[in-house]
Amino acid sequence: MAPTALVDLAQHHKVVAEAPSNGLHLSNSHHTTVTPKEDAPSRNLKRTEFLLDRNLHKSFPLVKSACGNYINLVDGRTVFDATSGAAVSCIGHGDKRVIKAMYSVLNTGIPYLATTFWACEVVEELCKELIAGTDGKMARVYLTGSGSEAMEAAIKLARQVFYEKDPATRRVNFIAREGSYHGNTIGALGMSGHPVRRAPYEPFLMDNVHHVTACNPYRQRTDGESDTSFVARKAAELEAKFQELGPETVVAFVAEPVVGAALGCVPSVPGYLKAMRDVCHKHGALFILDEVMSGMGRCGTLHAWQDEDVVPDLQTIGKGMGGGYQPVAAVLISSRVVNILLNGSGQFIHGQTYQGMPVQAAAALEVQRIVREEGLVDNVKRQGLYLEKCLRSRLAGHPNVGDIRGRGLFWGLEFVKNKITKEPFDARLGVAQRILEAAISAPFNMTMYPGTGCADGFRGDHVILAPAYNVTKEDIEHIARVASDVVHLVFRKLVNL
């Protein structure tokens, strides 16, 4: 496929003189930019002086405000947020209902309460809403402030389940997957199978976490292999790992139904989750799903496991739970686990200062009510199918787009040097980062979420598209068009290096 000409793209980006000085620049068009003044680079890019930022050698564009799916920069540009930040802002930015709900709690003077002493109605209402979203198939909620904290809590709770029944239990091992990312605390990172992220901290990570291969059909399926055969091979690998460790020593198996940042939206194939759960339950181990990034509606069902009704024993959620309005995440807990606590100590031996805060709960509760009342999960499924169609139409034939994969509004593009051999690019080229930098700059003005290591843990570039749940057909067409134009431009430049 020949690179798309940029003539049409320029027509889509109407240049105006100046953004409104007293408010948000929110044209209904996706294609409005402002020509920056000559001093824009020094005025509008910020290299932090006191914050330990993601990259101390880089300057970042300054954000002035945001509303809906748009982020407004100091240089006058309006950027379309096609990634919801990091798959977080699921209902967009600046929703007045959520802000009002947060203010109502702030106005009581109790945005924070020590859960050691007190209970709060809005916290219980949030938990009731979350359990209802599972159709009652989960029983309790443990609230935390981030996805990493949720995974840390799930690890400890899984171990305590067996400790409650027998303090001398031999169940000390966890099984997770290569190419996974479960968080950045020491425990959550130890569970992760992403070698680059683990590397600096290997001496500190748990040595009782063992990894099997991911469920990545693009990289692992043999020619002509059916889903059934592929799943059987994965189940056999997990069974072999149980036998290697001793089935009586395994606490749990942990997996992401759709692997997000680490692999670039790789969904499990049909039947995989059930097969993995069956192996776990055969040996009395727990089945844990990490849905921090892929859950809460992102994949076209409120919970990714609901696509095939494979209920976990423990589940972590985050990101889309609070939509970015508050730092909030949670562990959803099955009756099986809750009943062991109820019949034992009656408590989870764990706690954090900022858990179950009323202001966090108010924000998350309102986000979830909006998602439910406005039927946004159905929109995710509908617009997700259209996004897939648009991406495949524009990019499936590109010689460097190896795979287009995802579910709902959670889509990844994996880039390869050779489409036949699937050879990844040299990591030093920074292909995914180049695509982000091109996308977020004029004239494109759209976010794309970059990642590396999806081929072998070190090499392999991908980008993620994960827009808000309320996107329209017009939004989807814009996202696919800009993504295509950016990809064609970046690879055209790479060829000329």
From TrEMBL:
Belongs to the class-III pyridoxal-phosphate-dependent aminotransferase family. GO terms for cellular component: cytosol. Keywords: Pyridoxal phosphate, Transferase. It comes from Hyaloscypha hepaticicola. The keyword Transferase applies. This is PLP-dependent transferase. Gene3D superfamilies: Aspartate Aminotransferase, domain 1 (3.90.1150.10), Type I PLP-dependent aspartate aminotransferase-like (Major domain) (3.40.640.10). It comes from the Eukaryota. The keyword Cytoplasm does not apply. InterPro entries: Aminotrans_3 (IPR005814), PyrdxlP-dep_Trfase (IPR015424), PyrdxlP-dep_Trfase_major (IPR015421), PyrdxlP-dep_Trfase_small (IPR015422). Pfam families: Aminotran_3. SUPFAM superfamilies: PLP-dependent transferases. One of its GO terms (molecular function) is pyridoxal phosphate binding. Signal peptide: none annotated.
